[in-house]
Amino acid sequence: MTRRFDYFIVLADMRTGSNLLESQLNTLDGVTCYGEAFNPYFVGLPKLEEVLGFSLEDRERDPLALIDAIRNAPGEMNGFRFFSDHDARALTPALDDPRCAKIILMRNPLDSYISWKIALETKQWRLVNIKQRRDAQVTFDADEFADQLDQRKAFQQTVLKHLQTTGQAPFYIDYDDLNDLEVLNGLAAWLGVGSRLDELNQHLKRQNPAPAQSKVTNPDEMARALSQYDRFKLHNIPNFEPRRGPSVSRYVGAVHTPLMYLPVRGGPEAEIAQWLADLDGVNPGDLITGRNQKQTRQWMQSHPGHRKFTVLRHPLARAHAVFCNRILHTGPGAYVTIRNMLSRRYKVPLPAKGDLGTYTLDQHYEAFSAYLRMLRSILAGQTPIRVDGEWCGQAQTLKGMSSFTTPDLILREDELAAALPELARKVGHKAPPMPVKAKPDAPFSLEQIYDAQLEALTTEAYQRDYVLYGFGNWKPL
To answer: Which one of 225, 246, 276, 446 has the largest count of C-beta atoms within 10 Å of its C-beta?
Structure first.
């Protein structure tokens, strides 16, 4: 009988048990899983130099050739693991191919998050000998968890919508099923391979079997933060739109005034939050944020006449702010892993270890110019670097918002001094405060390095934003 599948892809995420699933699959005669074949930072496994003759550089030049090599490698059935932050160029071809078996591995997102935090703390990502197990309690970070959950949901939306529109059915397996011999043999039968498991592969051990609350230092705070989520829908994707999601948890509502801010990341988020707090005479920490869709709708219903607004920043100013805040340094808030990749693999001339002590204006211009050139490739999906919310197109962010709601007003940063007080007056404030101007970027401001070349590079990267929103040449605020 002809097999349905030629190869497989395990669609998962970090700390979902994918290593354990791989070890069970590799125990089947004739089956080989070639690890995280499209991880941006290594190929297959962290210490491997190559997979099937493909080095990291070979794979980056032609990711589809590695898929072909895995498909045609010796054995009855081969495949690989794929996570939401892996090279997206490999995902669509695999999803499009009905001869590729899709295995979707799921785990409670909270358990995955805590497991990830513990692994970061202990530096132990796999456990073979139980005597070598390292234990730790970690601190639950609500914003960090929300970001991971949003990323996971966006990935699931992409996968599920693609499979629906192409008429394909995946094999779902849960973390708790990875030690169930019958389920694993059912997976083997579904793949169409002849071998079966007589016993489980016990090489890898579960690292953190304790209850979630015992593994964090702030269980009460975690419980309060998680109360915003409907636990019965954590694995349900209500909207199959494959584009960027609405990121409702980032919306910021005023305490008393019927105004809600829908942030575009990389914009003047802190300054707008401060203005909303000043408007009602409260601290920024008192503002209404971190809510889910149901709670946000309740806020809308309880604030008749409310106005929702967002703020666009000039693409060049936004790119420069993100570069300074996320890429240039290595301190809090920095995207250190991406920074390292930009520096080492793509030769963006960033200061070593984020040391800005001897960093000059000319070096800043050179580094930022190189970053802008990379942005075009990143946004075009030509690199394994993720299209993060900090540097995705602002048009794409607004399109994601529209899957839940749309702003009543789309303001520009250069008009906030007049537009925000006027908006406040429309909802009842007679003498609203003035918004605070954003602080100049550090260590150098955009004004110090601006020229036509930087504008041209930004226009190439963000052409859609320039066209749709009519941005001209950048001018200081």
So the answer is: 276
- The CA–CA distances, whole Å, from 322 to 146, 184, 265, 372, 400 equal 20, 45, 9, 11, 20
Helix axes 315-322, 452-461, angle to 10 degrees: 90
pLDDT, mean of residues 218-230: 83
The span from the CA of 229 to the CA of 145, in Å, is 12
Rounded CA separation 470/467 (Å): 5
252 pLDDT higher than 50: yes
Q: What is the mean pLDDT of residues 49-71?
A: 95
DSSP letters along 228-266, please?
TS-GGGTT--S----S----GGG-EE-SSSSEEE-PPTT
Could you count the other beta carbons within 10 Å of the beta carbon of residue 446? Answer: 20
Tokens at residue 220, please?
A: 């009460």
Query: What pLDDT score does 234 carry?
Result: 44
At 229, list the tokens.
């989520």
Q: How far apart are CA 103 and CA 191, in angstroms?
A: 9
- pLDDT greater than 80 at residue 229: no
Judge contact between 262 and 251, C-beta under 8 A.
yes
CA–CA gap between residue 62 and residue 253 (Å, rounded): 46
Residue 458 tokens, joined:
């930004």
**Of the listed ranges 23-27, 49-53, 306-310, 462-466, the one predicted with least confidence:** 462-466
The type of residue at 319 is A
Give the C-alpha separation, 28 to 26, whole Å: 5
Q: Residue 191, CB half-sphere, CA atoms under 13 Å: how many?
A: 29
Please give the model's pTM, rounded to 2 decimal places: 0.67
Question: What does DSSP assign to residue 305?
Answer: T
Tell me the CA end-to-end span of the chain in Å, nearest whole number.
70
According to DSSP, residue 47 is labeled: T
